[in-house]
Amino acid sequence: MGVRVRFAPSPTGLLHLGGARTALFNYLFASGHKGQCILRIEDTDQGRLVPGSKEGLEESLQWLGVQFHESPSKGGPYGPYIQSERLSLYQQYARELLNGGSGYPCFCGKERLQSLRQRGTTGYDRRCRKLSRRQANEEMSRGSPFTVRLKVPENEVVCVEDAVYGRVEIKSSTIEDQVLLKTDGFPTYHFACVVDDHCMEISHVLRGEEWLLSTAKHCLLYSSLGWKPPQFVHLPLLVSSTGEKLSKRLQGTSVLSYQERGFLAEAVAEFLCRLGWSGGGEREGRSLEELAANFSLSGISRSPATVDEGKLMSTNKRHFRRHLHDPESAAVLARKLAECVKTTLTVPHDSSSLAPEYLFQVLQLLEDRISLIPRVPIDAPYFWTPPSATKESIPSPDIAARLLEELSGRLQELTDFSQDCVAKELKGASVTLGVPHGVTMQVCRAAIVGQERSPGLAGVCSVLGKEQVLERFKLAAIAVR
């Protein structure tokens, strides 16, 4: 059996960056070794389930480019791939642990356990562990509800062999006799994931560093059931720019939030792949296939990885440029921009300013200035709506009228409205009227874009076209009279 890995999220909310990074690392590792990557839904904690989360998780992963060989929707030879559909399997192995003496029934109810916590008792006091088999059987014959707990060995050292953190030793005295099977027949996370990883023949378990200490419990279960554990690979924590641990509770850390803000899927995926892994090389703008070819466990760091949105913006810009220079991808960007313009600005849907050719020109001109498509109509609305020209908004009103008249005449005569030709006439107007070129540009910028800063003004004019530029000069001239 070759490499088989799994990503096993709980459908309790949106997919956050940490979970997405784990999914991507699993996918890269499997792809690089021509293995299988499995999606398994861990829904045993029924009280925390959020309707629609499973579908949302799958959509987010698909958007990022993660492809699974086996999943709830695809099926596969090791299914079902939803834990709530595998209850009989967990109950079978719980009975094995009971019969073999590695597990025991616990009849302590919620009230007693709560009382222990209120008295300050750390963990379960193992009361039911002391029951004889006869006493336990009598309780069960009376129909008393019970959980199944793991009988953790006393005074031992549990060793976890991890590909990133090396050999980690945990004293068994610090491990509680964990519940494996609840009274409702559902397994706990720790029990279910061990059973599933074994039965699905998972070779490597890649997951967050926060699970490292819990892995000691898993090792005890593997030993109790006589199974060989997989290779454990714990990934470094993700932290915010302030050093705070990144979690789904932090607002704006879901994959969906980055998708809604307009980040490109390839950029988010590459950015996440580089968090805690140093094998991606210096060059950014790589595809998942390129990253998978270089992925190795030896490149994974132990140190927390900082989620720096500035770096994500930089990565997004590189991917944006790559898309812009590919005709098929550029057409997709143009369609996205059209949608954003419609939802942000009041523009007629049949307007020529929403034509793909026009939108492509806008994107080309803004190539060095934008990272996110939804920001374009917000930051550069002048490509679709003229600025509101007033006497106060036009600088140097005493000479603006003459300047606008001169410019209108010159541009009206142009048969070639290219950037170079427009730039030549802007300079010519300054010379003819004896006006500093800086003043000419200020007046033109106020009339055409209504902002102090913009891409090269001649380029903006060329994209807008002669008719639109002359109309804006006319409105500005009226305003300064």
TrEMBL record:
GO terms for cellular component: mitochondrion. Residues 340-475 form the Aminoacyl-tRNA synthetase class I anticodon-binding domain. This is Nondiscriminating glutamyl-tRNA synthetase EARS2, mitochondrial. The lineage of its organism: Eukaryota, Metazoa, Porifera, Demospongiae, Heteroscleromorpha. The keyword Transmembrane helix does not apply. Keywords: Aminoacyl-tRNA synthetase, ATP-binding, Ligase, Nucleotide-binding, Protein biosynthesis. InterPro entries: aa-tRNA-synth_I_cd-bd, aa-tRNA-synth_I_codon-bd_sub2, aa-tRNA-synth_I_CS, aa_tRNA-synth_I_cd-bd_sf, Glu-tRNA-ligase_bac/mito, Glu/Gln-tRNA-synth, Glu/Gln-tRNA-synth_Ib_cat-dom, GluQ/Sye. Residues 3-312 form the Glutamyl/glutaminyl-tRNA synthetase class Ib catalytic domain. It holds the Pfam family tRNA-synt_1c. SUPFAM superfamilies: An anticodon-binding domain of class I aminoacyl-tRNA synthetases (SSF48163), Nucleotidylyl transferase (SSF52374). GO terms for molecular function: ATP binding; glutamate-tRNA ligase activity; glutamate-tRNA(Gln) ligase activity; tRNA binding; zinc ion binding. The keyword Disulfide bond does not apply. NCBIfam families: gltX_bact. It comes from the Eukaryota. Belongs to the class-I aminoacyl-tRNA synthetase family. Glutamate--tRNA ligase type 1 subfamily. It is found in: Mitochondrion. It is an enzyme of class 6 (ligase). It catalyses: tRNA(Gln) + L-glutamate + ATP = L-glutamyl-tRNA(Gln) + AMP + diphosphate; tRNA(Glu) + L-glutamate + ATP = L-glutamyl-tRNA(Glu) + AMP + diphosphate; tRNA(Glx) + L-glutamate + ATP = L-glutamyl-tRNA(Glx) + AMP + diphosphate. Its EC number is 6.1.1.17, 6.1.1.24. It comes from Geodia barretti (Barrett's horny sponge). Its main location: mitochondrion. PANTHER family: GLUTAMATE--TRNA LIGASE, GLUTAMATE--TRNA LIGASE, MITOCHONDRIAL-RELATED. GO terms for biological process: glutamyl-tRNA aminoacylation.
